[in-house]
Write a sequence for this structure.
């Protein structure tokens, strides 16, 4: 079977990291690097040449019309994910869209309904879900390594509040959608999507979006995820799953390439190391390519239900904190 022909829409910061992972997969014959589109044709061409894409376009519309593109990775700011994903799907292209999949759950439902109606793959590039270490943590939990899991604690703190896309409500700014989405994904991945409620408190930037917040998800059986994010503190990302007989510590919650299991009985802690093949973004690309080859509409690692559950939590938290984006209307 011919490898999936991948193109990139928006040549910014994260697109460069994903392109490096795509080049890694292309060197192994797993995908084909087709095209890059940016609003500036010269930047698109330079980006394409740097990573070895076959061609480039100076507009997103030209990319969507490219008959040799199968899958488009959307890497624009949060509120543009829905319109750009729709543009791609209407052009008959499969879509892998950066996190958060859209700015709110309503938009996500609309995009996914469009993908369904066109018979196309569409998914969220929540890379944490695709990492080998995430699968290994799941196996450890299912094997009862920490007894009955009861609590999750997870934070992501990076001082990025000066960036325009973080400050601006019109771009879907705020720490929650950019950073908090990871602790939420971690909690939903390991405790399930059927949380009962989401509550918390936030400090707002003068632009009206959240600068930092502490919040919790609660499950009907009493399990709790205590989560936090900040766009001004600089603590990085870490996670912990605590059970009745032990704990799993994840020192790098987002770039997760290892974890430690500590039994409470006094036994020795056990360290697990699962280094990336490239930079970690190769796993989501490989999974999307495999799903398309298999005729699937979603990746089993990051199902649509998980994307919607995360957005519903963020919608509820933003509503409680009085944060509205123009696209919420
Ligand atoms: N998975 C991860 O680890 C990770 C890390 C960081 C960010 N992200 C996500 O990736 C997305 C992009 O973040 P980034 O850090 O790559 O941002 P960035 O460097 O600012 O790049 C965003 C790109 O969006 C395009 N764009 C189109 N319309 C725009 C507009 N009106 N204003 C600004 N940019 C516009 C631009 O593409 P052209 O001008 O090139 O066309 C720009 O290069 C966000 O949704 C973010 O949440 C993911």
């Amino acid at each position: 079977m011919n490898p999936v022909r991948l193109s990139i829409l928006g040549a910014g910061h994260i697109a460069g990291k994903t392109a490096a992972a795509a080049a890694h997969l292309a060197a192994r014959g797993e995908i084909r690097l087709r095209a890059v589109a940016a609003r500036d044709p010269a930047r698109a061409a330079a980006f394409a040449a740097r990573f070895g894409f076959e061609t480039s376009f100076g507009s997103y519309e030209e990319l969507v019309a490219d008959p040799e593109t199968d899958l488009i990775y959307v890497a624009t700011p949060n509120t543009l994910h829905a319109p750009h994903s729709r543009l791609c799907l209407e052009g008959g292209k499969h879509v892998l869209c950066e996190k958060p999949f859209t700015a709110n759950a309503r938009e996500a439902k609309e995009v996914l309904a469009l993908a369904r109606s066109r018979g196309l793959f569409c998914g969220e590039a929540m890379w944490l879900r695709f990492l080998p270490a995430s699968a290994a943590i799941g196996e450890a939990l299912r094997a009862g390594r920490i007894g009955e899991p009861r609590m999750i604690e997870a934070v992501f703190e990076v001082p990025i509040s000066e960036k325009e896309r973080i400050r601006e409500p019109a771009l879907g700014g705020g720490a929650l959608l950019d950073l908090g989405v990871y602790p939420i994904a971690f909690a939903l991945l390991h405790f399930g999507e059927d949380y009962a409620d989401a509550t918390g408190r936030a400090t707002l930037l003068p632009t009206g979006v959240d600068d930092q917040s502490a919040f919790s998800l609660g499950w009907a059986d009493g399990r709790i995820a205590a989560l936090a994010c900040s766009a001004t503190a600089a603590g990085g990302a870490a996670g912990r799953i605590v059970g009745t007989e032990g704990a799993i510590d994840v020192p790098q919650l987002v770039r997760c390439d290892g974890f430690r299991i500590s039994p409470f009985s006094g036994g020795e802690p056990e360290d697990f190391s699962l280094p990336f093949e490239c930079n970690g973004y190769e796993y989501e690309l490989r999974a999307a390519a495999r799903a398309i080859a298999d005729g699937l509409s979603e990746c089993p690692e990051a199902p649509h239900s998980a994307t919607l559950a995360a957005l519903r939590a963020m919608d509820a938290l933003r509503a409680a904190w009085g944060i509205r984006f123009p696209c919420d209307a």
Q: What stands out?
A: Residues 129-280+309-328 form a domain with the Dihydrodipicolinate Reductase; domain 2 fold (CATH 3.30.360.10).
